[in-house]
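Replying to the earlier thread about multi-chain prediction with a worked example.

Input:
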Amino acid sequence: MALQVSHSPHVRDAATTQSLMRDVIIALLPATFAGWYFFGLRAVLITCLSVLSSIVFEYISRKIMKREQTISDLSAIVTGLLLALNLPPTLPLYMVVIGAFFAIVVVKQFFGGLGNNFINPALGARIFLVIAFPKAMTQWAVRSGAYFTRDALTGADMVSSATPLTLFRSSENLPSISDLFFGNRAGCIGEVCIAALLVGAIYLICRHVIRPVIPFFYLGTFILCVWLFGNTPIYTLFNQDFTTLSAWSNLFYEPCYMLFSGGLILGAFFMATDYVTSPITGKGKMLFGIGCGLFTFLIRYYGNISEGVSFAIIIMNILTPHIDTLTMRRPFGEVKAHEQK
Amino acid sequence: MRSLHAFTGGVHPIGNKNTDVLPSIHLHGFKEVELLLKQHIGPPCTCVVKPGDKVYVGTMIGRAEHPMAVPIHSSVSGTVKEIHYVISANGTPVESVRIESDLREQVDPACCPPLLENKDDFLKMIRDSGLVGLGGAAFPTHIKLNPPADKPPKVLIVNAAECEPYITADYRQICEHPDDIVDGILAVMKYLSIPKTIVGVEDNKPLVTRIFTHELKKHFFKTGTPADIEVKTLKSIYPQGAEKMLIYTLIGKKVPPGKLPLDVGVVVMNVSTLRFIGLYLKEGVPLTRKRVTLDGSALNTPGNFIIPIGAKINDIIEAAGGTSEEPKKIIMGGAMMGVAVDRDDIGIVKPNNAILVFGSKETTLPPESACIRCGRCVASCPMHLMPTGIDQSTRRRDVEGLIKYHVMDCIECGCCTYACPAKRYLTQSIKDGKSLVRKENERIATEKKLLAEKKTEEEGK
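Result:
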């Protein structure tokens, strides 16, 4: 009789890396479909191309490096999907492939594959594309015309349009909050429909894939900053008559507008919570979220670039090892040195 | 009643308490037992029998010479066949006595209920009975019950949490012998002058509270004096039964790293240990039989069995109903902390409370993949450590890093490994890391010693 000998514990939780990644993909699907709905066939094409080329690059690079294949952990699909959701729908296709190459090969595999990259691969690729192709990456458009036409596939029917954040700076033709919430506006494929993103976020939290610590502190810090240092600071609104609805809507207008425009919700729930590039302790996650919120606010209000969320998260990604060292946990029952008698 | 849950961390493995409603069965007819001479923490006993000697149930065969050692008694009546070395479950060679049973199970006529007058008598009785902590750690009970004079215990905590999956032996113990348990508790309270006792039970065993309340009422009617014994329900979460977690949940005190429960005024005892004390006071037969949960998909009839210590696993499985399929993995102990054995002719020892016989359904050896830093190990660690950091330091052979991550505070509960989605063998790696730190400490100590010797030599010149 051959008995298997292994170290305890002899039972394991059902969750695997693969199942976690599958849950992330499922959570991203509503936003993906919403993006397809708003931007048409061209968005479908970009998404498929991004996912496919991510898988191919992952396969080839593992093959060349003579390491075991890791496609089955689904992380390449997550990266490809997240990258696609972070791209404008008018982007030339070869740039999508270059982006996937940068995400998978340069950011992820050069540093040792899943678990070792120091910044979020999809965000790294997005920033790379913005710097390499600034014009194409900042051309925003909305779909016009029918769904299943040749023009819809090539993106020729896109009509250029400013993003809500650009409009906010010039304070002209501001879209309504409900338009922003449901996604009827220009922007990246995946960032427009806040409702769909929130459905996915709730799914992730309910399935215990992510803990809401980072999004909570990220969005909380951001809202606080907007209220305190935004265009209409909160203390200027205190002398209103708070029995009327308009007073309350004045109070919440700017934070809501800022939350629902740009990639903040996508970033806070799906990019900042990336396991590999965020701190491992609860306290670290709080600091990480607060840092993301601060940097997003600074870049959005005082910067001149449209990638506030991406840059904020990447800066915090780079700081993550330091946050981890800073927030080392003290063992159960250990007394602080200065508290000892 | 609200269940207490105070410590942070822990995991929720599937309970698999399949055997909790089945009454325990006495198993007899073992032709041979293999009694290891080291069944406790501490140095082994000295063998006092030789091949050909006639022994009874309860005859001492291993004398305890070191203060930390506990004597070993024969669990069957019969003839000593052989004194030899065997490889124990954890892989170390241990001297062992093989006894052939005459199947009559005659109790040694010298066994009689002990006469107690004071605490010293009590402690001597505990040691002579061969009792060790039956919860799994096998810490000598006579040491635990002998606190230094400057640290008098204020509370006795009875550990009936039984948070390991599958195991129901303690639960059955409570259901079947609550009277002995209360006697044991009262004896410990009396001789150690502990004013208060708290029994901690997980909320997946609702009967226990009622049984205890009833038993305490009975005690009150019998003696007219109330006993200060309180039963508290704990949230079912692993490792609720770990000493430090249990103390924190029940009385809110944290035992600092490297300290004992006594440092916060607490003595923690397993419920089976107390039941044995109660029984020994009545009958005077040393620890020779153990209640063991047999479970796992390969078994025909899982259940709780009362088995002579030293009976071999294959004989036990045979006597308990046999297997329905070829066992793929046999675990001595629970699924979270038990030891997987490589052969089935090992005799069970005092702290064993379960034998799990896994078939192909439960036996998995998932391949490791890269850490994705999800933080589940950190969130699940009841000791608030960072298992993934320790794991990486061990693999780098980085002793400094290991110390920085407090590797020595790990209680090896297995929560991190259970929770890890990348299926990394964290507990194993942490154990490795502990031995690295120990080796390094030894090396530093010898170096210091050599230096000191050199210095004295030079001074001598």
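Residues 376-460 of chain B form one domain.

Feel free to reuse this layout for your own posts.
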